Amino acid sequence: MASTDDEDADGERRIASDAVGVVVLGSCATWSLVTAAAQGGRPEGVLLAVLAVAAGHAAGRISGVLLPVAAPCAAALAGLALTAALPRLVPGPETVAPLGHAGATAAVLTLSAGAACCAAWATPAPAARLLLRLLACGTAAAGAALGSPTAAVSCAAVVLCSLAAGRMPHRGRGLAGLALAAAAVAGLTWAAACAALPGGLAASLEERLTPRRVDLWRDALDLARHDAGLGVGPGRFGELSATAARTTLTDGKPHSAPFQMAAEQGVVGVLLLAAAFGWVLFALWHAARPTPVVLSAGAALTGVAAVASVGNALSFTAVSVGAGLLAGLATARPLAVGPAAGTVPARSGRDLRSRDGRPAV
Q1: pLDDT value, residue 326
Q2: Whether the Cβ atoms of residue 223 and residue 232 lie closer than 8 Å to each other
Q3: pTM as predicted
Q4: Among 197, 184, 356, 216, CA closest to 282
Q5: Would you tell me how many other CB atoms lie within 10 Å of the CB of residue 252?
Q6: SS3 166
Q7: Higher local confidence (pLDDT), 121 or 226
Q8: Buried b / exposed e along 26-59 (16+ C-beta atoms within 10 A)
Q9: For the segment 231-281, what is each residue's pLDDT rounded down to a tens digit?
């Protein structure tokens, strides 16, 4: 009877997280239409991103149920193949100044690393687990080979977090740490744009980010201050940014998801962007998958959030689909749920659940 009660409670929590996701994604789409109607602009980019996340999430939930190991493995290989085969994802001379396609490369490879780590924790075969972890390490090497140090660092961080997740019984603490890491990166970018950092740190950061990108962020802040409620309208940053107007090669974006939302959709847009990331962590917290799988996916999605804070990664449909896919894979309920290999199994009864209410392994 206790087992049935636990399953019912898990089912209710999953339904709640799915309902939150529908509300958040629906609100993102609706608000883009509202701001476009009020201020003018083109909401198609936001609508496409919302659709891509939803489609990827649905595909991940379905494939994760049927193929809990093969599906994330295939996703990891697909991400590697995508970055190698499509030159527009690879950083080139024309996109070095803003992160641009380099950001997309870093995001896709980070998602590939997370998918490989999820597959490694899901398989019970030691040899397969080792190969999948080598595949995850290979994503970092691929990032370095493609000239994207951001990808190499982000993928290495995901692998390390995944290994540490095997010894972390309470997923709530891990997810809280990931949320703080994403908030810290976003806060650092805002401090850099507001010139609120100490002189030495500000100069070093601006040199790495390039002065042009910081100028784009400052333009976004100026536009957001002009109309904090509705913003200037979706897709209109390039028309109104002085820095973008002075640049010969520009995509009309501030190369930061929070700054773009602030400039084009106001404070509500920023809150909805944060809510979307919060929903993903909330869904992972309530997922029936083992904790190492959940935290591996969470680390990869946090890496993508960090890249999107300083680059233009979310403007690429492949990144939005991949993020939704990985979140779906990590929150799917496989037909047979068992403890992750390499973890210490819980004993019985109440020991099967950690103090934060989620599966301990």
Answers
A1: 97
A2: yes
A3: 0.87
A4: 356
A5: 14
A6: coil
A7: 121
A8: ebbbebbeebbeebebebebbbebbbbbbbbbeb
A9: 999 989 888 888 877 766 667 788 899 999 999 999 999 999 999 999 999
Average pLDDT rounded to a whole number, residues 292-317: 94
The answer to whether the CB of 46 falls within 8 A of the CB of 28 is yes
- What is d(CA 329, CA 294) in angstroms, rounded to the nearest whole number? 9
What is the token pair recorded at 90?
Answer: 């690879």
Rg of the chain, C-alpha, whole Å: 20
Dihedral angle, C-alpha 266, 316, 30, 254, nearest 10 ° = 10
Q: How is residue 328 written in tokens?
A: 């779906």
pLDDT digits (tens, 9 = 90+) for 283-297: 999 998 999 999 999
Helix (H, G, I), strand (E, B) or coil at 50: helix
pLDDT in tens, 170-184: 899 999 999 999 999
Read off the DSSP letter of residue 192: H
Q: What is the mean pLDDT of the chain?
A: 85
Cβ contact 315:253 at 8 Å:
yes
Q: Which residues lie below 8 Å from residue 319, measured CB to CB, with a gap of 6+?
A: 104, 107, 108, 111, 304, 308, 313
Report d(CA 138, CA 121) in Å as an integer.
17
In order of 17, 24, 56, 102, 178, the CA distances from 29 in angstroms are 18, 9, 16, 27, 26
SS3 of residue 338 by DSSP = coil
- Beta-carbon contacts of residue 111 (< 8 Å; ≥ 6 apart): 75, 79, 300, 301, 304, 319, 322, 323, 325, 326
